[in-house]
Model the fold of this input.
Amino acid sequence: MSINAITKRISKIPLIIVLFLVLFWTLLPLAWFFMISLTTVGGMPVGFSLPRVLTLRSYERVIFGLAGYAPIWKNFFDSLVIASLTAIIVTGVSILPAYASSRFTGKIVTGIFGFVLVLRMLPDAVMGVPFYLMYDRLGMLDNYVTMSLAISLAMIPAGVWILKGFIDTVPRELEEQARIDGASMIQIIFRIIFPVIAPGIVVVAFLSFLWGYQNLVFPLYLSRGTIQPISLRLLGTIGGTRVYWNEMAALTYLSMIPVMLLYAFAGKYLVKGLIMGAVKR
Amino acid sequence: MILVGSSKKTLLFLELPLLIYTLIFFAYPVYLLIYYSFTDFLLYKPEIKFIGFENYIKILTGRGTFYYMNQIIYTVVVTFGSLALGMGFALLVDYFKRHRIFQRVLSALIMMPMLLIPAAVGVTWVFMYSEYYGPFNFVLRLLGLPTKPWLYTTSSLWYVMLTDIWGWSPFVYIILLAALQQIDPSILEAAEIDGATGFRRFLYITLPSILPLIGIVTTIKLIDTYKEFDCLYTMTQGGPGDYSTNLNVAIYRSFYKHRDFGTACAYGVLTLIFPILIVIIYHIISKRMEMRG
Done:
């Protein structure tokens, strides 16, 4: 081996160390907690070693709800209902304003577009109290629809921005041709714009779904115990008198499944949405 | 675009869903928030009295300023921490652009924390910090140091910040990687031929071309971290005592623990002041810029 090749090899060492550190940092918590989910309370390692017992018992307990442990099905059901409703509400509310922002100019449009920025900045925790007071008065606590309507608030801006970005790319000649043929604005939006921006609608729907799925604040404020999405269940496992770490770990990994599926089937859309939601304004 | 007929009416019709939604789910709740912040609304109390600024005075002369500080520190540290880390990840992954498959695998691994919802991130890291079973204490034990109940110390807020950075740097990474991949490789190649070192290439070509996006990501992260509740509340519930309580957690604590809705609303209004000020300043600055240029 020539000196040159050796120095080239040595110069790669820092890079390899950095790579190792990066993976250690991102993956150690995930891998370690996953290992915990596969063992028993008594078998948990107390040092950097493998657990003494390997079993799927904790998953069994969490899924089937053995020994007084509530089964996870209800939590998943609640989460998925809230997430789907959030996706529908955000898409439904933001599509027409997005079209307006794309096709109209003037003070009203820019004003509304700027106002949407304020919605983006509202912390959920701040809005929790007034939503509670409002729904309590109307007897609408513990309700999937009202909860999703509250969760949607912070996601509307992203919905409008992303859809506007997609509508901007639709050539206006397409619409004008239809208009000459006598189509109304609603017909144009539903027959011409909708099919072309279908990917944009998918992006917004998926992002809002994720947002609804992960939301903790509004279920915390607005649930009286009947609705218990997975985020609330995770929070509930903390702070008990006896801590079953293996079952908490199993619950954590089961809560990843919907997100994983979404990324597996629509990862490209989600990443695109994240980037667009960040860039387009 | 040529508008047919009465364009104002059409515009109103298009904005209608947003207007109705924000009237009911934004304007009215905000009105309730402000209204009740001036009352002594406690649960199970027969009548609500109007008490002026008493809630605000109570907060600002009490622990409120401490929670404000916590919120600001948390926001700044987590934003710039995840920005630095995400930037590092993006540069590392972009470095392997000639090894497509390796790059994809590395990217997927770096994005792994994004699969966890914030509450799950919290649970995972409570375990990481656990006194007997947590890897952080394994390291201390290996070094022969006494173990530490991390989240039960007065600096628990800082350990939650570390968790938040872990969970959110992948988001920054994705956006910055997209920005890096937009840079025309021929410019970098030309600079390399001209003899620019790696660091100088980064400083004079890479950094200026991704600077606008860094600005946007920073803004978004500042906004999102200011809203932080999930991870913090899952991990410490604002404790021990109230050492890791920020404004968002303070709202929930007055709401849930003390059932003191008046104070909770006052905390809410105080939380909103900061973002509103920033929006106003931003508008003034952009107006000035427009007038000048």
User: Anything to note?
Assistant: Chain B is about 75% helix and 0% strand. Chain B touches chain A through 88 residues (CB under 8 Å). Residues 1-5 of chain B have pLDDT under 50 and may be disordered. The first helix of chain B runs from residue 7 to 36.
